[in-house]
Design goal:
It is a single chain. The chain contains 13 helices and 19 strands. It has 453 residues and is an alpha/beta fold. It has three domains: 33 residues, no CATH class; 264 residues, FAD/NAD(P)-binding domain, CATH 3.50.50; 111 residues, no CATH class. The strands form six sheets. The chain has a five-stranded parallel beta sheet with strand order 6-5-4-10-19. A four-stranded mixed beta sheet has the order 3-9-8-7. A hairpin with a 2-residue loop joins β8 and β9. The chain binds flavin-adenine dinucleotide (FAD). The site of flavin-adenine dinucleotide has 41 residues, from α2, α3, β7 and α12. Flavin-adenine dinucleotide (FAD) binds next to α2, α3, β7 and α12.
Length: 453
């Protein structure tokens, strides 16, 4: 039966009671509101976060025969690469899994409109269950052991119990709430790499130049002895660009005339604070239009560009880094250190520190140079001990929030390396359960045989 109720009665009823009625001229059915009466899920391996690390971990764990559930807060898999339109896939790594993904999605220059469906195919073919629109809120603990999590969705607050939990949230949400110690920011002032809105433009002329790094900005001539960098720096100084925008990086996208632009940035804000996220979203989106005006005016071939895509969420480069049994450090990357217990081999990407306190690149920045240059690394390993957290059992961490220093993170945070970390962590989790042991005591030779052959 439909009964008429007023707005006050409706608001008073919120708390889980089932209602039907008419509000103004609209009929409604308010059957479910956020309540504690959500559902209970059970799984063996629970992966929190559906980014490159999370989907890789879930796929590999399911392929080894375990019951796997992957939870993602947004409506799409793929993490920053899809939801924040971070593009292209970067970083080199020796990983048959990453190669398989590349073959499926079209390599580093993948189509971001389609890649998340390829990720879903891989998960479903492996037998993993996917739940989107599910935000992991807090861990369920038994002493020092995590035995599940609570999540919130439109249906209410759910509980998920699991034998092993993998935190692939990028921000180490689960680990931090479970009591795993973590670090955030660089030594000294605690500042993190800036957040940025990536965006796409169309209308780029065929003869336009593309410039994807600080080094390229220095080497790219525009005209009258000016370079991409000198033009950008002058505009930054005279206020035509925001003072934090020291480099305008452009990457040619698949379609003719289309480019991805990596340029906006906001300093001094944290991707784990809601006011900071709000501020960053608004300020960076405003920067986009200032940058487009600048590009139209100064970059030949960009005179007719327009913004064709802006993602719904801002890109967050750096937040919490858990403290694991071991920490990966800058020296390990620069020297190309090898580990007997490697779950990732031959990772390659520069030390890419977007300046936490100004524009451009912080690495190798000195007083003479406004912008630094990303530092070089030698192909390095990532050991299992960097994904096993201190203090808490039943938990592994995958992706950019593993145990590493601020500098080391600036290299392994790119998508191909995070995907390889996820592949390693999913394998470690499944083999540990299959062998009735803990991740720390798992036979690493067995893991490496699965991962690298
Ligand atoms: C602006 C910017 C530009 C970049 N450019 C590049 C580039 O060109 N190439 C490149 O390879 N890399 C680039 N990166 C880095 C790269 O995108 C990320 O570091 C990488 O995606 C990290 O992978 P991840 O799986 O660890 O985390 P993420 O990609 O962040 O994925 C984490 C997932 O977990 C979900 N999640 C988070 N919290 C919860 C929760 N509580 N409950 C449920 N789900 C949750 C998120 O929605 C997300 O889907 C860039 C990053 C930024 C910010």
């Amino acid at each position: 039966m439909t009964s008429k109720i007023n707005r006050r009665q409706l608001i008073g009823a919120i708390g889980g009671v089932s209602l039907t009625g008419v509000l103004g001229n609209e009929s409604f059915s308010a059957q479910t509101v956020i309540s504690n009466s959500g559902r209970n899920f059970e799984t063996e391996i629970l992966v929190c976060g559906g980014g490159p690390a999370g989907f890789a971990a879930a796929t590999n764990a399911a392929r080894l025969g375990r019951k796997v559930l992957i939870l993602e807060r947004y409506g799409r898999l793929g993490g920053m690469g899809i939801c924040a339109r971070v593009w292209p896939l970067m970083g080199g790594v020796q990983s048959p899994f990453v190669k398989e993904v590349h073959d499926k999605i079209g390599g580093n220059g993948f189509d971001p409109e389609r890649a998340d469906l390829h990720y879903a195919d891989l998960l479903e073919q492996a037998g993993a269950k996917i739940l989107l629109h599910n935000w992991v809120t807090e861990p369920i603990m038994e002493g020092n052991r995590i035995v599940g999590v609570k999540t919130v969705s439109k249906e209410g607050i759910h509980t998920v119990s699991a034998n092993l939990v993998i935190d692939a949230t990028g921000d180490a949400d689960v680990a931090a709430n479970a009591g795993v110690p973590f670090e955030m920011g660089r030594e000294g002032d605690g500042l993190v790499q800036p957040m940025s809105i990536m965006f796409a433009v169309e209308g780029v002329a065929d003869n336009a130049q593309y410039c994807g790094s600080e080094e390229a900005a220095r080497a790219t001539s525009i005209d009258n002895n000016e370079t991409w960098e000198t033009v950008t720096t002058r505009a930054q100084k005279n206020g035509e660009l925001p003072e934090t925008v020291g480099v305008v990086r452009t990457y040619k996208m698949g379609r003719r005339g289309k480019a991805c632009v990596n340029a906006t940035q906001i300093n001094g804000l944290f991707g784990t604070k809601v006011e900071d996220l709000t501020n960053a979203e608004l300020q960076c989106r405003r920067q986009v239009f200032q940058i487009v005006d600048f590009m139209r005016k100064y970059f030949p071939g960009y005179e007719n560009i327009y913004v064709s895509h802006m993602p719904s969420v801002i890109g967050v480069r750096e937040t919490r880094r858990i403290c694991g049994l071991e920490q990966l450090k800058r020296e390990d990357l620069v020297s190309g250190r090898k580990w007997d217990n490697a779950i990732v081999r031959e990772a390659r990407f520069s030390l890419d520190i977007h300046n936490p306190a100004g524009g451009g690149q912080a690495e190798n920045q000195n007083q003479k140079q406004v912008q630094g240059t990303a530092g070089k690394v030698k192909p390095y390993d990532i050991p299992a001990t960097c994904v096993i957290p201190q203090k808490i059992d039943g938990l592994l961490v995958a992706g950019r929030c593993i145990s590493g220093s601020h500098e080391a993170h600036s290299s392994y945070r790119v998508q191909n390396i995070c995907m390889a970390i996820g592949a390693g962590v999913g394998t470690l989790a499944a083999v540990a359960l299959n062998d009735h042991t803990t991740p720390a005591n798992t036979d690493m030779k067995k893991i490496q045989k699965i991962l690298f052959q």
